[in-house]
Amino acid sequence: MTTVIERASKSLDLSVLPMFSGFRQWRGTCEKHGEQVISVPPSVKSWVCPVCVSQKAAKTLPVEWLEERAKALMTVSHLPEKYVGQKFVATSDEQRRARQAAKLFYDQVTQKKVWASLNLVGETGTGKTLLACEVMQRLIVGAGMSCRYATSMGILSEIKESYGTEGKTENGEIQRFADFDLLIIDEIDQIRGSDTDRLLLQEVVNRRYNAKKPVLTISNLSFESFGKAVGARIASRLSENGTVVLFDWADQRRIAA
Ligand SMILES: Nc1ncnc2c1ncn2[C@@H]1O[C@H](COP(=O)(O)OP(=O)(O)OP(=O)(O)O)[C@@H](O)[C@H]1O
Ligand SMILES: [Mg+2]
Ligand SMILES: [Zn+2]
């Protein structure tokens, strides 16, 4: 297990990442896939359909594709700019354990076709989103895997945007979130909405579960209370081959201030 982690981390070159800073959201229409939004750095001057790009990338041979594929995958990942190229620094044993859990999860995701969940729970400012985004960047750059970052509310609003939009369907939008190799659901406990909202999110998680595609969730609640917030059916799936990491150290935003 450990050797795999070490080999994987040596092949990573996070230095290609800073070129992705200054992202903007760009909406365009693909003849095949309808309206799509991509987030791109200022250097990108022409719009590309993210679905076409990832389909094309999936067919590319693993020769010198990594960098090209990483660029393509970054445009569809919606990685928040703040965390681009950032690393979670572990200074305590608890933080080192969190890093280790993230490495093991990285291994599970790269094995493919294994349902697994990593659930980062704890107080605000403890580095949960940072660690999740580091895992995501490593998967993109080191393993050429397709990843998507979104908040639960973001997922719901993207699905609902399909209502009445030509070329988009609710089913298609749910499937889009189900298809990424890894989906990060930040603020999973923040679904304030109706039962319909919970059902939509449940459908995303369930399709991923059925397809053995891992999920990384982040929440401020304890794992038990977030079971109540997200509903028993999501919580049950997350607990199967799931790891919970408790972030119970000081708010790093206050320390930095
Ligand atoms: N271990 C760490 N190493 C380096 N920077 C860190 C670490 N932990 C937190 N930070 C920094 O502290 C800030 C807060 O981290 P982050 O946004 O990941 O917190 P969070 O746990 O997701 O908080 P919230 O629950 O409020 O979303 C960021 O600027 C992040 O880069
Ligand atoms: Mg966060
Ligand atoms: Zn397309």
What does it look like?
With 257 residues, the protein is of the alpha/beta class. It contains eleven helices and seven strands. Strands 4-5-6-3-7 form a five-stranded parallel β-sheet, sandwiched between helices. Strands 1-2 form a two-stranded antiparallel sheet. Helix 8 (195-210) links the parallel strand 5 (182-186) and strand 6. The protein binds adenosine-5'-triphosphate, magnesium ion and zinc ion. Adenosine-5'-triphosphate binds at residues 86, 88-89, 95, 124-130, 220, 252-253.
SSE topology:
Elements: H1 2-10, E1 24-30, E2 34-40, H2 50-59, H3 65-77, H4 93-111, E3 117-122, H5 128-143, E4 147-151, H6 152-161, H7 170-179, E5 182-186, H8 195-210, E6 215-219, H9 223-230, H10 232-239, E7 242-247, H11 252-256
Parallel strand pairs: 3-6, 3-7, 4-5, 5-6
Antiparallel strand pairs: 1-2
Helix pairs in contact: 2-3, 3-5, 4-5, 6-7, 7-8, 9-10
